[in-house]
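Batch job 17 of 40 flagged for manual review because the log was empty.
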Amino acid sequence: MLKYILLIVGACGAVALGVFAASKIFPPATNVVPSEAGAPVDPDHAQFAADLKARAATDADLDGLSDAQEKQLGTDPNKSDTDGDGLLDRQEVNIFKTDPTKADSDGDGVKDIDEVL
């Protein structure tokens, strides 16, 4: 009986030593801040969320064009792809030079996304 008790105590000691060693090898993260819900949040993600929220104040659809620019262009400030062709309004204006209000800017029957990719 003593043999089994020593075996169990020895096994428990080995597990405890393993947990102790693991805590030294993999220490808990120290670069996290608590969220409103109490769960830890990485500060980089918290900053990203704050930046995104600030950007959304001037770019409701987060397509890269400000709401003011979208008003000038005649695009929908609440839809990132006003014409539904698969390209963001910002991409159409700044990169591909297509019309963000028409899925087929040149009227040839082929959607803009199929022509530029």
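Reviewer: the log was empty due to a logging misconfiguration, but the result itself is present. The chain has five helices and two strands. Unflagging and moving on to job 18.
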